[in-house]
Structures are given as C-alpha cells and as structure tokens.
Amino acid sequence: MAQPAATLPLRLYGALGRVLSGPALARTDKKLTAAGISDERLAERRGWATQARPHGSLIWVHAASVGESLSALPLISRFIEDHAVLVTSGTGTSARIMADRLPEGAIHQFAPIDTAPAVRAFFDHWRPDLGVFVESELWPRLILDAEARNIPLALVNARMSDRSLVSWSRVPATARRVLSAFRLIVTQNAETCDGLRPFVSGTTKLCTGTNLKTATPAPSANASALADWQGLLVDRPAWTASSTHPGEDGPILEAHQRLLQSVPNALCILIPRHPERGPGIAELAASHGLRAARRGAGHTLSSETQVYVADTIGETGLWYRAAPVVFLAGSFGDAGGHNPWEPIGCGAALLFGPKVPNAAADYAALTDLGAARQVDGAPSLATAVADLLRSPKALRDMRDAAEGATGEADKMADALSADLIDLIRHTNGG
C-alpha cells in the first residue's frame, strides 16, 4: 500500500538532515569517545552494524538513554525467551549500563543518526520483525522508514510533557503522519493518552497503561558479598541513603546524628548519585562529628564507623538488601525524584522526601499500599528510620507490601509483552 506523502515539515527535516549530518556525527562521535566508546562502535551511528544479525525473529527496542533503557528491561527479559532482541540507544552511559543489565543474548547497538543513508543501512542489516519505541524518543525517518518496510511499530511507556503536546499541535498533520505509523501506543497516564488522541488514526490502538519502571528488574547483588555484609550487620541496625545529590547529604547526616541519640550503634550507608563525590561526603560527615569510612578508598567497616560512604558503581542492589530501610534521595532538592521501583524490587522499606514530581504517581501508589513513607526533612527522616529499625513488625509489613507491589507490576509486564508479540503474528498473517 502506498504511504501518505510527507508533510512540508518532514520534507524540511529531511533536507536539514542531509546538510547537518556531518556536524551532528562529529559531535556525537566526540561525546561517545569521551565516554570511552571504541572507534569501531562509532560506525553504528552511521547505520553500520558491528554485530551479526541473529537467526530467526528479531525484536528491536529503541530507547533514548539510561532511564528509558532501564524501563524497557521488563519487556526485553520476556522477549528474549523466544526471540532475538536488539536494543538501540544514543549515549555512552546507556551502552555501559546495558552491557551490565541486558539478559544474555540481547544485543546493544547505538541508534543510527536519523538520515536516509544511516537508517537504510540499519534496516538492511537488522531487518527487525517488530520495533518498540520507549517513552518519547521519536525519530521521524526511523519511524516512517520502518513503516514503509511493513515493520510493525509500538510506542510504550509513552510520556509527553505539556510543552511537547503544544509543539505537536502546531504541526498537526506532521504529528498525525508520524504517530499513526504506530500500530499500538500505550501511555504512562491518562493525560498523555488524551493529549495524543487528536494525532492518532483509527488504525492505531491507543490506550493507557502503567509505568514500565514498576516492573524493572531489581539490581543484582553478589551473593558472597551480601552474605559477608549481612554477617557484619547482624548486630548493627543499618539504613541506606541512596542516590544523594549535593545539598542532600547535610540533612541526611543530620538525621543520622539524631538517630544515634536513640539507636547509638546505628550505621548509615550513604550512596552518592555520583561516586566522585565520595571524598567530599566523608569530609562533610567528619564536620558533623561522625566517623566515616569510604568504600571507594578500600576502607573496611569497623565498630567505630557511623557512616559508610558507598562511592562505587554497580553495588546498589547489595546495599538495598543488606540494609533494607532505604531513603531514596533526589527528593529533598530539585532532582525530581528517582525510580522508586529499584529499592522496592529488592524488598526494601522505602522512605522519600517531598519533591518527587518525576514519579509522583508511583510514590503515591506505593505510599497507599504501605510500601513507602514520605518524610519532610532531617527530624522526620530520623524518626521514620528509628521506627523501622526498632520495630521488626513495622519493617516486615512495609517489605511485604513492597513484594506485593512488584508482583502486580510483573503481571502488567506479562500482558504488555504478549500484546506486543501479537503484532508480529498479525503482520505475518498468524
């Protein structure tokens, strides 16, 4: 069937792509090289694959960066059971994290730049049987060329800001042309669903789902290291303050000072969002009169340690399990709040601050279930931690609620993955 003609904005977009592709590639090459990506892999941005296409059906999942890639993991882990999986993203950080978190057999490549030669080379090699775009990473040529090749497309976990929806409304014909290439669009919330409805054709199934991050696989923990730390903490009431940003460490350390008045041997495991901040946090702890040790410096835990700065990468799952009273930072300042489902997935009792607009619905749902509790500052944080450390029943109730929440999230991911795989069957006449 002939494809609808491109709108004027799409034609202009294509023309600009031809002119600006060289500078754009040079800029992304520089960023990827700075992130430690090999010269060989830079070819992927030009559509040239650096791995062979697996035999059989291939599901292609496209995500912008780290957050979107992680939110796609629940689907990827289900796809890989019966299909080959290709994951594309655009940043060096997402490539490193995917190398650690992707299930065995899944392939990561950098997404091709959105120009005709790169996109053509990408599709000629990979020939996906299904394309799944995550959240709001929409590249017109990639989408429309997939449609032209009769590759079924889905947009999942869709999230559009008011600003993005206003931008689409200024070019409604172009918005309809791009979004109607998707056979299925599943939004995170009703607001996005309603906002997209004017731009979606009747052949596209548009519906509201839930945030895929609710089913994100929990970060792993080395079994031997976890057993060692559980032994070290058997007589030490411990809590974790995770993903802290500048300005949040002070209130957390103040909360721990208050906690020590009622739980004298308590330990705070403090995980900075950026590990390079570890030395400064240890100094800040000392200025609060607290004895600190640093994981990044090879310090071991002693009976005198009051704050253990976990300034390493890839061990978050260890601390969530070893000290499962978790305050998730990014919620006292302007960071907007981090994904609460990672600590919940580890069975932690979750505490959080009042500033979580990035995931407000998730925090509200978890609070309603009894798996999370909001605190407003150092005094209430100290009180909440003390309540959980001194009451095994209160801690057990919150952890049981967390387990129930992850069970519901898994059911949602099962249903969505089945709907997506059905798109392949329908395209192939099955």
Walkthrough of the structure:
This protein has 430 residues and is of the alpha/beta class. The chain is 47% helix and 15% strand. It has 16 helices and 14 strands. The strands form two sheets. Strands 3-2-1-4-5-6-7 form a seven-stranded parallel sheet, sandwiched between helices. Strands 10-11-9-8-12-13-14 form a seven-stranded parallel sheet, with helices on both faces. The mean pLDDT is 93.
Short key terms for the protein model shown above:
single chain; alpha/beta; elongated
Brief synopsis:
This protein has about 425 residues and is α/β, with parallel strands linked by helices.
Q: Give the number of DSSP strands.
A: 14
- What form results from the Cα inertia axes? elongated
Radius of gyration: 24 Å
Determine the number of helices (DSSP H or I, runs of at least 4 residues). Answer: 16
Q: In percent, how much strand structure appears in the residues?
A: 5-15%
Strands of the largest sheet, in order across it? Answer: 3-2-1-4-5-6-7
- Sheet of most strands: 7 strands, parallel
Helix fraction, binned, reads: 40-55%
Structural class by sheet pairing and helices: alpha/beta
- Report the end-to-end length measured between terminal Cα atoms: 20 Å
